[in-house]
Design the sequence.
């Protein structure tokens, strides 16, 4: 039986961010300068230039450099999500951004497709990742098995990538000043029309604007929980839809489609007015879903504050709850952040109610600590306690320094995730672990302080 809030493990983490003296010893400016240099080194290690191969996969025949999710043998393909999430770090070249955007658009599903595994790829779907030889893989769970992709990783392709496609286009058009790309035809279809088509793929509740799925037609809500079965209304994907709607409004204005811009602005308004009520949870955070695996979501709650999808006073209340949980050692360890607060796990054996495969407690997406959301959590903390935000950021950088991959092959930071239980850590030189916090720190105005 679920036991939300009913227990704390015997080895509950009692220190805020790792060693007790971390927050006092760090210097924010120096730490952020170090983070920026390290992130640039990780991005360089993640580049796959034309003709290059990684871990026996390749060569890259897409015509331009691709950026995979990490260095060494980590994830040898181009992941739409990881690239889009890393854009705010400002470490990709304009050519890399444009190539990633156009390649993703060109490989958008041009017709409905029923996979051999029993899954369904609808017209307009966006790939989860793309192989070095330019094949779209719409589902997690396989690196390059085009014919075998799909179930049990979802009946529908990963839902979040449709909104990350919009994020790439918005960055290219607005941040890089390449608005001309929006009317460029990609495989005979203007990019702006491909964006509209992708935006419409995930199923939504018309009255609320929130993304949802049933168990039988499930799609991944967010790739960093792609091994978790979420059903009902989906928090993280709804937040991404909220953000993408605002960006689609900007892009529509740019190409003179003002009536369409108003439609997207109304979608944002509808989501914002319903999201706090639909996903409200007694923990004070937002729940990850209204069906299966509806545990309170640290990442999603912080991201809701970042994108402004929750009005005051709920936003301030969630920030205060995150601050209290951080202080009590319930969400962070050595500068990484857990998906669910300690004390709100489904039960003693699993953090989420249902996960795919043999995923033990305190491993990977079932209880490990991740650096990727640190920037979002810092942003939320800073709304109510800037000192707590700085302490978490310093702990994140201090942990990177202890095991910087540039020291040698025996070192791997930034790792994808880790846990003090058994010294768990996996996937060295992982890009989002540094680019996502760095990008958020830039948006917070911390860089150069």
Sequence:
């Amino acid at each position: 039986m679920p036991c939300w809030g009913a227990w704390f493990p015997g080895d509950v983490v009692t220190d805020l961010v790792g060693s007790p003296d971390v927050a006092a010893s760090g210097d924010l400016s120096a730490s952020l300068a170090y983070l920026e240099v390290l992130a640039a080194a990780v991005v360089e290690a993640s580049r796959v230039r034309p003709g290059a191969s990684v871990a026996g996969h390749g060569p890259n025949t897409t015509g331009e450099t691709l950026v995979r999710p990490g260095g060494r043998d980590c994830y040898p393909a181009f992941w739409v999500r990881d690239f889009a999430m890393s854009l705010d770090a400002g470490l990709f070249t304009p050519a890399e951004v444009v190539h990633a955007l156009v390649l993703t658009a060109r490989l958008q599903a041009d017709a409905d497709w029923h996979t051999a595994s029993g899954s369904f790829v609808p017209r307009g779907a966006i790939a989860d990742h793309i192989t070095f030889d330019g094949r779209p893989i719409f589902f997690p769970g396989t690196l390059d098995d085009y014919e075998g992709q799909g179930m049990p990783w979802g009946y529908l392709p990963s839902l979040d990538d449709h909104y990350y496609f919009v994020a790439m286009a918005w960055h290219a058009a607005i941040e890089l000043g390449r608005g001309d790309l929006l009317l460029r035809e990609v495989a005979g279809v203007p990019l702006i029309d491909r964006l509209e088509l992708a935006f419409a793929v995930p199923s939504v509740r018309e009255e609320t604007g929130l993304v949802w799925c049933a168990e039988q037609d499930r799609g991944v809500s967010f790739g960093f929980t792609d091994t978790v079965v979420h059903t009902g209304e989906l928090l993280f994907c709804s937040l991404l839809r909220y953000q993408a709607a605002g960006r689609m409004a900007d892009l529509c204005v740019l190409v003179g489609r003002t009536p369409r811009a108003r439609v997207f602005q109304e979608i944002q308004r509808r989501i914002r007015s319903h999201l706090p009520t639909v996903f409200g949870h007694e923990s004070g955070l937002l729940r990850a879903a209204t069906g299966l695996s509806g545990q309170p979501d640290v990442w999603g709650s912080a991201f809701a504050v970042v994108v402004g999808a929750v009005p005051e006073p709920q936003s301030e209340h969630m920030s205060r709850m995150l601050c209290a949980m951080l202080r009590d050692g319930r969400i962070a360890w050595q500068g990484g952040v857990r998906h669910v607060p300690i004390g709100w796990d489904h039960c003693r054996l699993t953090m989420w109610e249902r996960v795919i495969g043999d995923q033990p407690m305190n491993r990977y997406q079932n209880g490990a600590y991740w650096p990727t959301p640190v920037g979002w959590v810092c942003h939320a903390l800073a709304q109510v306690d800037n000192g707590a935000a700085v302490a978490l950021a310093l702990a994140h950088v201090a942990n990177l320094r202890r095991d910087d991959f540039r020291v040698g092959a025996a070192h791997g930071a930034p790792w994808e995730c880790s846990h003090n239980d058994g010294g768990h850590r996996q996937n060295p030189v992982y890009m989002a672990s540094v680019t996502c916090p760095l990008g958020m720190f830039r948006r917070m105005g911390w860089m150069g302080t």
The longest helix spans residues 258-279. The chain has one domain: 22-443.
